[in-house]
């Protein structure tokens, strides 16, 4: 059993307890930066109480990962799995040879899984990707330029690998723990045959410590009735098992209803929080402003040098300061965009739909007029489409496609606690709710459109017709 050196009161879990090693990580300046990096970007503009940070979420994920890992060491096949972990010895560095080290690696991995997030989290990366696209590049090339060559395509993953190397250098920990942590944080993916693969899945799968905490935390702080899944049941219902020499995480068949609750709650937080029409509109305005800061070289890769004295302050407060203080005096459009965001001013902005019914009506009409029943929505994200729409309507056309969705793995293995073995059944084939979740998600708006400019009151239908006509022509020519 691990000894704890730090106790932190948490809104979701009551108290979270942390070891001496974790205390050193939490107090490290790289981790302290996360206090002012919002978990959900600008969602608090629609849900004012949803101000959770990557800092608090990481503490919660660490707590849950520890609970799950402790349970895994009680699995019937744990002794056999531990032998595999011992074989991870490299040179003089031993492999994991005791349960406490396994639990400590799991906790540290969950604690540090978000360490590399940039200000406003995924929203910043969305702006980087849009900026790269407008300059005929992709996010991978920009990530490499900013953080060096690696297997990672996302900036927060590449930066996270760099930061963890620094933390391992600065915070004393057992060699086996350090090496396993570095493997988990610096490898994009691990083959299923790798002994650490179950630990990877503990923080990076459909039902993991990350999603269990984030979904509960978001639901609670947004004030909704979702996010009430049974965390204790989920944390105590995971088992280690082996199939043809490959180790996997399996879930007790007794916990199917708890897994359904988690995954359904995750769907609802996506629809009602992360992709709420007001949140989407604010996301798009931030994307435009951050893109302008990148174009003007106000935001630079040098700002995110971990060795710099100011890296501690590269958080949301710093980014909001750049947005507030940027000189847009020669660019009235950017001045309007900034005012619309900071003052929540709506007179220059029109969101074309706010629910799935209006989206379906307008999207179907575009398909019908374009005679393209199966066009790929991604073509509306191109800079060329934005330029075309600006010329056709005289308005700035902003398109947002949710960066992630509800894609449920069908091969979540179920475990029989009675027979202490896999049941040969999977959650996807057992649960009707899970089978239908993907269909529910596909019925939601697959993209959002906001028009910005000299919007005339009471002419909504005119703008909608213009958007449908122009977009149908674009889809017909490019889809």
General description of the model:
The protein has 479 residues and is of the alpha+beta class. The protein has a domain of 264 residues: Hypothetical protein af1432. 52% of the residues lie in helices and 10% in strands. It has 21 helices and nine strands. A hairpin with a 3-residue loop joins β1 and β2. α3 packs antiparallel against α5, α7 runs parallel beside α8 and α14 packs across α16. The termini are far apart.
Global mean pLDDT: 94
The CATH topology of the domain at 6-239 and 247-276: Hypothetical protein af1432
Widest sheet, order of strands: 3-4-7-8
Shape: globular
What Rg, in angstroms, do the CA atoms define? 24 Å
Main sheet characteristics: 4 strands, mixed
Based on helices, strands and strand pairing, what is the structural class? alpha+beta
Q: List the uncertain runs.
A: none
DSSP E strands, number: 9
Total number of helices: 21
Order of helices and strands: EEHHHHHHHHHHHHEEHHHHEHHEEEHHEH
- Helix percentage range: 40-55%
Q: Which class of the domain at 6-239 and 247-276 in CATH terms?
A: Mainly Alpha
Q: CA-to-CA gap between the ends?
A: 59 Å
Query: What name goes with the CATH superfamily of the domain at 6-239 and 247-276?
Result: Hypothetical protein af1432
Mind telling me which CATH architecture of the domain at 6-239 and 247-276 this is?
Orthogonal Bundle
Strand content: 5-15%
């Amino acid at each position: 059993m691990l000894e704890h050196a730090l106790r932190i009161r948490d809104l979701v879990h009551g108290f979270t307890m942390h070891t001496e090693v974790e205390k050193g990580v939490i107090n490290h300046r790289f981790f302290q930066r996360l206090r002012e990096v919002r978990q959900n970007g600008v969602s608090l503009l629609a849900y004012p109480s949803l101000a959770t940070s990557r800092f608090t979420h990481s503490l919660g994920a660490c707590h849950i990962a520890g609970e799950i890992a402790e349970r895994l060491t009680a699995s019937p096949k744990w002794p056999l799995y531990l032998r595999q972990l011992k074989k991870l010895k490299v040179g003089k560095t031993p492999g994991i040879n005791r349960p406490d080290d396994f639990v400590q690696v799991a906790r540290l991995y969950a604690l540090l899984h978000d360490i590399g997030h940039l200000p406003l989290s995924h929203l910043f990366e969305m702006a980087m990707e849009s900026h790269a696209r407008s300059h005929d590049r992709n996010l991978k090339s920009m990530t490499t330029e900013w953080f060096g060559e690696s297997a990672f395509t996302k900036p927060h993953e590449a930066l996270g690998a760099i930061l963890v190397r620094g933390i391992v250098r600065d915070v004393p920990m057992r060699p086996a723990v350090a090496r396993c942590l570095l493997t988990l944080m610096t490898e994009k993916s691990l083959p299923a045959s790798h002994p650490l693969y179950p630990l990877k899945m503990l923080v990076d799968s459909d039902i993991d410590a990350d999603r269990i905490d984030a979904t509960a935390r978001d639901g609670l702080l947004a004030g909704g009735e979702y996010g009430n899944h049974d965390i204790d049941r989920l944390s105590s219902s995971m088992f280690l098992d082996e199939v043809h020499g490959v180790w996997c995480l399996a879930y007790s068949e007794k916990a199917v209803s708890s897994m359904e609750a988690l995954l359904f709650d995750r769907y609802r937080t996506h629809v009602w929080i992360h992709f709420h029409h007001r949140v989407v509109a604010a996301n798009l305005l931030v994307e435009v402003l951050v893109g302008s800061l990148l174009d003007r070289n106000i935001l630079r890769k040098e700002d995110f040098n971990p060795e710099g004295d100011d890296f501690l302050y590269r958080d949301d407060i710093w980014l909001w300061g750049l947005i507030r203080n940027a000189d847009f005096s020669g660019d009235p459009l950017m001045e309007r965009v900034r005012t619309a965001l900071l003052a929540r001013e709506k007179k220059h902005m029109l969101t074309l739909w706010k629910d799935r019914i209006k989206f379906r009506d307008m999207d179907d009409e575009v398909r019908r007029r374009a005679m393209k029943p199966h066009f790929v929505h991604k073509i509306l994200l191109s800079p060329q489409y934005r330029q075309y729409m600006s010329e056709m309507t005289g308005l700035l056309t902003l398109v947002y496609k949710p960066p992630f969705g509800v894609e449920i793995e069908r091969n979540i293995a179920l475990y029989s606690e009675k027979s202490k073995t896999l049941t040969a059944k999977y959650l996807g084939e057992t649960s009707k709710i899970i089978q239908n979740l993907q269909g529910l998600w596909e019925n939601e708006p697959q993209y959002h459109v906001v028009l910005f400019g000299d919007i005339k009151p009471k002419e909504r239908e005119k703008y909608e017709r213009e958007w449908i006509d122009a977009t149908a022509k674009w889809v017909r020519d490019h889809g």
